[in-house]
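Appendix B: complex inputs.
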Amino acid sequence: MSEYQALVDRVRQHGLRLTRQRSTILRALYELHGHASAEKIHERIRSHHGDVDLSTVYRTLEKLRDLRILSQTDLGRGCAEFEVVARQPHHHLICQSCGRVIDLDHAYLVPAEQAIRRDFCFEPTLDHLAIFGLCHACRRAEAVAD
Amino acid sequence: MSEYQALVDRVRQHGLRLTRQRSTILRALYELHGHASAEKIHERIRSHHGDVDLSTVYRTLEKLRDLRILSQTDLGRGCAEFEVVARQPHHHLICQSCGRVIDLDHAYLVPAEQAIRRDFCFEPTLDHLAIFGLCHACRRAEAVAD
DNA sequence: ATGCATGCAAATTGTTTGCACTTCA
DNA sequence: TGAAGTGCAAACAATTTGCATGCAT
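Resulting structure:
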């Protein structure tokens, strides 16, 4: 079963109706693999599939996020970014200076995650964290400038 | 020397002009201790001090953030929140269901921070992280509902 | 005095909403 | 059939910008 099919099935299982718009949005999301803003998804659909109203895109993304089929993250680009929730959570290091995005394996956060769960009975949604900072290159550049 | 005076000095040290607006914004920020949105700061100023244009508030906050005098965080309330950077970093657990905010000591993130620095030569700005999830009470409520 | 800062008003951007119409289950 | 979903246009809210004027250094 394709990954796309699996997505469609999950939507169905939650009792959502499978409309043309929804399957198109899922397809676009799958094709864009990686994060995508509502706007980007909308564009992709306009250029590769039929058309779906932007407000429908927003409504659908919100619904899928609530069902935890998608994760929503703020990558510091001034808009929400969505992604299909992976079996394996993954995170991002975002350089505040050059904008570079580095993938970060979930293993780095497991200790913190466990401690938080243990000490606060708080279940963190750590499937897609954004950590801002300075990358190697920009750190250097800044050191020189000082 | 008061904390407020220290703030003013830091602004000066960075070569910024100390205008009436800027010192008012710093004062409001100090008085509000804790996070505050541009809007909230603006309101505080209107009710307790003279008046400063909202756009000036935005411009100032941006500048102070760039100088790392302030930290900017997205606490999921649909607007940016600012806070004077503390000597001691601190973080927040935010319940996606009820909106409750729980303080999280920096110690929880030290291992991750060190590993990231070591493995990626990436300097994370971990002075104010927001971790979303479900608090104890909401976890329970959800378990019952299922 | 000069250039950084401000106020004002208008523009932008991302997102949400009301409502009549459509469509899937 | 009936509730859930959609398109459209309009409303919103947060933030940004252009430009003439003002003030700290």
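Residues 27 and 107 of chain A are 30 Å apart (CA to CA).
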